[in-house]
Amino acid sequence: MSLEDSCRVDFAALRAERRAKVFSGMESHGLDALVLGGAGNVHYVCGARVLGRAGVLPFAPVCVVVRSTGRVHLLSTWDEGVPPEIEREDLYPLSWDPANLMRSVASIPGLRESRRAGTDGLTASTGAMVVSLASGAELVDGGAVVEACRRVKTDAEITCLEVAAAISESALSAMSAALGPGVSERELLGVYSEHVAQLGAPVPPSESVCFSAGGAGPVEFRSAASDRVVGDGEMVVLAPGALYAGYEAGLARTVVAGSGSGGGGGGGSALGERCAAGMDALVGACRAGGVGADLYRAWERAGVGPASVVLAHGLGLGAEPPVIGLGLGRDAVLEEGMVLSVQSWVADEGVGGCLQRDTVVIDASGPVVLTRYGRP
């Protein structure tokens, strides 16, 4: 089998597999309908291409799933980017008037007969409207149902994540080549954005892809690039991510700017070694049947310092539960087929900070690191 064939995804089969998991989850939880607004949940259920956008939007009934009819309905005024299994009659139009929108939703076949409906979010005004769609229906948390479906990835989903990981690694190489004394963080961001766009992934999952981690004072773990110029011998965190078919993967390495640095995180310094030790400990704890507390214990045994950032979180159609770190997620169960973004961050005042991050699949035989870019 060629590399091209091994990376090929049957997206129609992938969408059908996801829908089957959702309908099965609805049946097991006794849900007659799902009213969804979260971008990741909507994409998972219907597979429609989601436009890139900035900012936070209030809840809206973007996708409606009806178990009795086996149909998925989508808020859309056109069928561009909508999979063929969602037919034109399954679309309902957008309206600035919530009452008009709800009337369109109410006309969806089988919805009014629902006795138990789930939703992944509400605003103050839409709660009563959603209840009114099916008179007397019980409204419950439907987000947990979709979350359970999304948690364990299929083989096709893993392939999508592998492609996203490869794009991220290519972007890291481009950013490393552009890194040097005098370059600004925003210039590195521009290199990243241009590179992933050239590889066919023009919508980045985040602009949090680089920051200087050196300096004489306290080192800040930052989430946004600035106009700050990199100094000679300074440690810089490069943390690119990428999306493929909606699935996100990414990695992070800390590189020293300037000649003679060797390109490693701290040039083989004690800080870099501590960061690597923390990463090895965390990845080793990502085993099926374990819990989030195992990652806490692994970090503590490694003795690399306080856990000042999230140690790991779920990854798939963007960031997903569980979140493990900063006191959260100790009881989260790790299952075979889950994918985690695992990260190790250590910092010393007056020395700098070092970050390593990888995308990890929990396999039956143990953790499998999808991002294979070398670590110093």
TrEMBL record:
**Creatinase N-terminal domain: which residues?**
18-152
What top-level branch of life does the organism fall under? Bacteria
Q: Which SUPFAM superfamilies match?
A: Creatinase/aminopeptidase, Creatinase/prolidase N-terminal domain
User: Which residue intervals define the domain Peptidase M24 in the entry?
Assistant: 160-363
**Which Pfam families does the record match to this protein?**
Creatinase_N (PF01321), Peptidase_M24 (PF00557)
PANTHER family reported in the protein's UniProt record: AMINOPEPTIDASE, AMINOPEPTIDASE YPDF
User: Any idea what this protein is called?
Assistant: M24 family metallopeptidase
Q: Which organism is it from?
A: Mycobacterium paragordonae
